[in-house]
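Hi R.,

As promised on Friday, here is the backbone we talked about, encoded as structure tokens. Could you run it through your design pipeline when you get a chance and send me back a sequence?
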């Protein structure tokens, strides 16, 4: 495990770059009328690249919802979880701040600096705030389910390139919810732009929705797929909530080596004079 300061630096930098690119893509799309597709692709790619680049240091959460999901299932301890979230929020604020510094007001204002807001036109068609809350929760459920499957579960098939699987589900979510809520799925992604332009309209939706979706997804994956395996190999749960494996699986090669050692000891015993 890397030192805590390295992990926090990775979470800060990764979230900083992600928010700069994701909010930047949304800002330019709003200015040019480019539509949802380029924003969804840019957001997914930005997240995929940052997780792939920094995941080996901190786990590549880059999202308070992911951190909370990992915490409730004991995959991150109680000390690190809030520090991760602070680093993510600071990184998001820095990313949005640099984006605002790079662009003139005439460029960033039409898209509210990439802030995630419920589409007023969607509201006119009956897309209410509770529906937005539910949509954010469902999209985050999909995201965190994939995070557990490809990154947290040690049996995940794509562990070394987990970022791209996670980026793809974010892209798919954004194609569904981008025009309706901005498809945040990430309280830090919403926090950065909202702070810089001081616009907190329906902000609670982008906190409660992702957190609820993340907790449900984490608990579902743990209960159905991780808990039985942990029961099989035996785990000890540390006081702070971190999972410590008590007994590692022994491979066939290790068993063969142990058998050879036992036979060698028996031969030595037989050779010794009585």
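Update: got your reply. Pasting your designed sequence below so it's all in one thread:
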């Amino acid at each position: 495990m890397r030192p805590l300061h390295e992990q926090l630096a990775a979470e800060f930098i990764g979230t900083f770059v992600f928010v700069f690119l994701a909010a930047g893509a949304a800002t330019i799309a709003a200015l040019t009328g480019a539509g949802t597709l380029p924003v969804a692709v840019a957001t997914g790619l930005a997240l995929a690249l940052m997780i792939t680049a920094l995941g080996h240091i901190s786990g590549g959460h880059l999202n308070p919802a992911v951190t909370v999901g990992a915490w409730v299932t004991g995959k991150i301890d109680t000390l690190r979880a809030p520090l991760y979230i602070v680093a993510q929020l600071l990184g998001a604020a820095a990313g949005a701040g640099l984006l605002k510094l790079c662009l003139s007001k005439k460029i960033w204002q039409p898209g509210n600096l990439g802030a995630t807001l419920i589409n007023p036109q969607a509201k006119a068609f009956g897309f209410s705030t509770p529906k937005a809350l539910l949509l954010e929760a469902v999209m985050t459920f999909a995201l965190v389910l994939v995070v557990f499957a490809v990154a947290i579960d040690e049996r995940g098939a794509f562990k070394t390139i987990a970022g791209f699987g996670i980026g793809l589900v974010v892209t798919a979510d954004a194609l569904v919810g981008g025009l309706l809520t901005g498809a945040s799925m990430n309280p830090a992604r919403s926090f950065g732009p909202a702070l810089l332009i001081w616009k907190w309209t329906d902000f609670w939706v982008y906190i409660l929705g992702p957190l609820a979706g993340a907790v449900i997804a984490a608990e579902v994956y743990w209960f159905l797929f991780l808990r039985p395996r942990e029961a099989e190999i035996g785990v000890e749960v540390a006081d702070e909530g971190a999972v410590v494996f008590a007994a590692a699986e022994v491979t066939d090669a290790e068993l063969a080596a142990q058998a050879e050692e036992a036979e060698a000891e028996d031969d030595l015993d037989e050779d010794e004079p009585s």
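One thing I noticed while checking it: The two ends are 51 Å apart (CA to CA).

Thanks again,
M.
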